[in-house]
Every structure is written in C-alpha cells, then in structure tokens.
C-alpha cells in the first residue's frame, strides 16, 4: 500500500492539511482575478440573433498565492467549471481581468499563451470523458510535450513512465487504453498529463467527484503529496465540503456566478458569515465524539437555484434566504472584508456586525428555509418529502427512514408515520421560531450583532 493510501479519508477529523504560513503572508499572488465575467450568448431565430445570455460567471475577484490551495465550492451550475476554464484561458472572458504571474492573460492570443500554458494546467471534471479512448496512456500523457514541442531529458517515453510512477500507475501500462483502467486510475492519468510540463498552477475541476469514496481519499492524498513534492499551487473545485475542507488553505463559496464568501479554512468552517455558506455547512456531518448524542440542526434551503439567465435582483440569494430584507432585494451587497482575511457579500452576515441594521425580514423569507434535526432519522427522512404541517394525516410514510426496531409491515408503517409526524411537528416549531427570531433580530431594538437564528441553528 502506498503512503497516500495509508492516510485517512478526507473529511475525517484531524486529517486536514496544516495551513502554510505563506497563505497568510505571501506578498505576490500567482493568480489575480478581477471582476471576471463570462456570459454565454443565447441565440435564436433564423438569423441567430442573441436573445439573452447565461451569466455563468458574473464579476468575481480573488487572488491565489504561490504554494497555497484555494478551494472553490458551490451548488451545481453556479459557475465553478466556467471559472476554472476562464482562469486557465480555455475560455475567453466576456469581461474582467486575469493576471498570471504578473502577465495580463485576459485576452492574450493563443500564440502568446503557449509558453504560459506550460505553467498552468487543468485536471478536468470527468475522468471518463477527458481521455481520448483511441489513444494509449503513453500517447495521452505525452500530448503536452508534443503540443509544446518539448523533448524531456532521456526521451518522452521515459518521462511519461516517470510521471505514471509518480501518480501511482504502473509504468508498464504505457501502451494500454483508457477503458482498461478504473475510474481512480483514469483520474491519475489526467493528473499525470497535467503534471507533464511541471506546471506552477493546477486547476483541478472536481478531481474526485466521479470516484468512490475510498478512491477519493487516495486521489486527494496524491494531490496533497504532489503539492509538497513539486511546490504546486492549486485551485480545487468541488461541491463536496468534506473534500474541500481536507485540501484547502482558503475557500471561496460561489452562488449563481458570484463569490459570496472567501476566507481561510478555519475561519470559514468555525464562523461562516454568509447565510448560504451556513446552510451548506449545516448539511455536513461533523465527526466529533464529544458531540455524541447531541442533536444538530440542518438548514434545508427550499426552492430551486434561480436561472443564471435572469438572476434575482440585489443579492442573488435573497429568494432562498431566511434573513432577506428589502435592501437585499434591491441592492447587491459588495464582497467586503468584515474580518481579517474573511470577505463576505451580505447585508446581514452571521458572526459579524449587521451591515444594514433596522430592516424587517421579508414575509417570503419565512418560507425559504426549514430546520431539520439531524439527530432524528425519521425527521430527516420526512424532510425529503413535502410535509408542510404537523398533521400526521398529511404525511406520506417514509418507511425507509423508520428505525429497524419499529417492527415490520403495517406496524412499521404506522410507527414510521408517527415518527414522521413528531419530526414534522418539531421541525415546524423550530423553523417557525427561527424565522421569527430572525425577524426580531432585524428590528431596531434587537440587541447585539448576532442574530438569534444563529443561536437556534448553531447547536
Ligand atoms: N458552453 C456553454 N454554453 C452555454 N451555457 C453554458 C456553457 N457552459 C456552461 N454553461 C452554463 O453556465 C452555468 C455554469 O456552468 P458550470 O459548468 O460552470 O457550472 P458548475 O458550477 O461547474 O456545475 P457542476 O457542479 O454541475 O459542474 C450553467 O448554467 C451552465 O448551463
Ligand atoms: S441576508 Fe440579504 S444579503 Fe445576506 S445573504 Fe440573505 S438575502 Fe443576501
Ligand atoms: Mg463543473
């Protein structure tokens, strides 16, 4: 078993990487992004006139310092992959600026980009689709050498085999085809290809999401080891907060084409400021023996993510936020540093002074969230079905979520219904109380910056 395989799985307490000192003090960022935008045109009609645009990335700014790992997290469709392709210039930005090692590469021509491409590489989201099935592994991993016209010392084959060994593949499999490898091995092939030209920056788009959990741990640990060995800088994109927590020094949270919060890992996980981040984190189970038997609550966001074609006005999260007020509907909150190294775009942040005190919570905010007790299996299961009130007759029995001791057949069903009813009642109470508490916090006489919804959900 390799060293990397011995390490525990990502997300396990105590396995996180130590934050390197340079992440707090390194002066020059390797990558600088300012107001980056990508609008994909929507064309229709006989003449293909543009009738709208998908605002996939809509004005994001961040830096990545040499040697650090920036994790980028957010729901599906929020623009993570587009952002990755923009910063590596696989896509042409609509607006904004991308600087790599001091060079403005925003609209650099393909010819001028070629030498810089050696220093910035991408690992693609899909380990199956990103490898040409008609090429051998040797051919795939040696592609960057061919494209760049580079002949490594000792020849291409020797170098490719060295890279295969580096990522834990058998160099004798040089002539095999992608279909002869497992998902984890294919992802390693993608990593070997990305490392071929000894890059400085690697953007890894969901490097482990297509893999089994056990293989995920191996690939994450491999990325970690390669970073220490080769001094790489990473931007790692994922929607899994356990993976992001394990690999990142700093984390950017994206929602509908925007960065809503960016902070170092500890600060983000211990005191998230954006309500969206708080909701995302509440869904992640925290393995902590001290909390055994303690019930925690999950914030379930209701409703779908709005369309990036016509995103909501003001704060894009206001249609799903339990703290939304009138100002949230009309004014977009700027991404501001409310603590050292911790930026957030919110008028009413958690764990920080309210940026727009005295505003009343919008009536629809009451329906935007549901609190679920994570300690009660039947309640959590019931939350997945629509159970708007506490009446048992309205609840479809979530038999699969009922405890094993509940019996079998009709007996189990009845028990499950009863469990679900209790869970729904508890939920209805806590969610209602939390929203009322949030509303109280928005009134002028509310005491202190921390909203009661924080207290009621942070258990
Ligand atoms: N080439 C394209 N043309 C038009 N729309 C696009 C294109 N690429 C992406 N989009 C749209 O841009 C939005 C962001 O897509 P993107 O792939 O960046 O999301 P993502 O956060 O990576 O999602 P996932 O987690 O599912 O990979 C989506 O609404 C998507 O449909
Ligand atoms: S409180 Fe307002 S600004 Fe903050 S996330 Fe909610 S809707 Fe957006
Ligand atoms: Mg993606």
From TrEMBL:
Residues 1-28, 373-459 are annotated as: Disordered. It holds the Pfam family ABC_tran. InterPro entries: AAA+_ATPase, ABC_transp_ATP-bind, ABC_transporter-like_ATP-bd, ABC_transporter-like_CS, Oligopep_ABC_C, P-loop_NTPase. Gene3D superfamilies: P-loop containing nucleotide triphosphate hydrolases (3.40.50.300). Keywords: ATP-binding, Nucleotide-binding, Transport. SMART domains: AAA. One of its GO terms (molecular function) is ATP binding. This is Dipeptide ABC transporter ATP-binding protein. It comes from Streptomyces crystallinus.
């Amino acid at each position: 078993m390799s060293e990397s395989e011995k390490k525990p799985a990502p997300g396990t307490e105590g396995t996180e990487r130590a934050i390197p000192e340079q992440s707090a003090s390194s002066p020059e960022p390797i990558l600088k992004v300012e107001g980056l935008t990508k609008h994909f045109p929507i064309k229709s009609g006989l003449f293909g006139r543009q009738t709208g645009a998908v605002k996939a990335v809509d004005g994001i700014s961040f830096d990545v310092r040499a040697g650090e790992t920036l994790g980028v997290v957010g729901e599906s469709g929020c623009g993570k992959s587009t952002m990755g392709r923009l910063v590596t210039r696989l896509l042409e930005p609509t607006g904004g600026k991308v600087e790599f090692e001091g060079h403005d590469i925003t609209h650099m021509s393909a010819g001028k980009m070629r030498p810089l491409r050696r220093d910035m590489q991408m690992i693609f989201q899909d380990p199956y689709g990103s490898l040409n099935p008609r090429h051998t592994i040797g051919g795939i991993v040696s592609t960057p050498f061919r494209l760049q016209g580079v002949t490594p010392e000792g020849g291409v084959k020797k170098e490719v085999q060295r890279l295969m060994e580096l990522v834990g593949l058998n160099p004798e499999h040089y002539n095999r085809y992608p279909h002869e490898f497992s998902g984890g091995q294919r992802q390693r092939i993608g990593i070997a290809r990305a490392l071929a030209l000894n890059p400085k920056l690697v953007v890894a788009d969901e490097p482990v999401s297509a893999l089994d959990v056990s293989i995920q741990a191996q690939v994450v640990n491999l990325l970690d080891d390669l970073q220490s060995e080769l001094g790489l800088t990473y931007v790692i994109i994922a929607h899994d907060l356990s993976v992001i927590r394990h690999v990142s020094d700093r984390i950017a949270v994206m929602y509908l084409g925007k960065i809503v919060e960016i902070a170092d890992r500890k600060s983000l996980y211990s005191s998230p400021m954006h309500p969206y981040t708080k909701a995302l984190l509440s869904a992640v189970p925290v393995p902590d023996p001290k909390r055994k038997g303690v019930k925690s609550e999950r914030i379930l966001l209701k409703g779908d993510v709005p369309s990036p074609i016509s995103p909501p006005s003001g704060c894009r999260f206001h249609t799903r936020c339990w703290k939304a007020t009138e100002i949230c509907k009309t004014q977009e909150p700027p991404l501001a540093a409310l603590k050292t190294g911790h930026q957030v775009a919110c008028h009413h942040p958690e764990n920080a002074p309210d940026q727009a005190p005295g505003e009343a919570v919008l009536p629809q905010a009451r329906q935007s969230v549901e609190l679920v007790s994570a300690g009660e299996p039947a309640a959590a299961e019931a939350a997945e079905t629509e159970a708007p009130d506490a009446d048992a007759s309205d609840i479809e029995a979530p038999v699969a979520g009922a405890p094993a001791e509940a019996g079998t057949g009709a007996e189990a069903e009845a028990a499950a219904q009863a469990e679900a009813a209790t869970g729904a009642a508890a939920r209805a109470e806590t969610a209602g109380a939390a929203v009322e508490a949030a509303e109280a916090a928005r009134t002028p006489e509310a005491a202190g910056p921390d909203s009661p919804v924080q207290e009621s959900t942070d258990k």
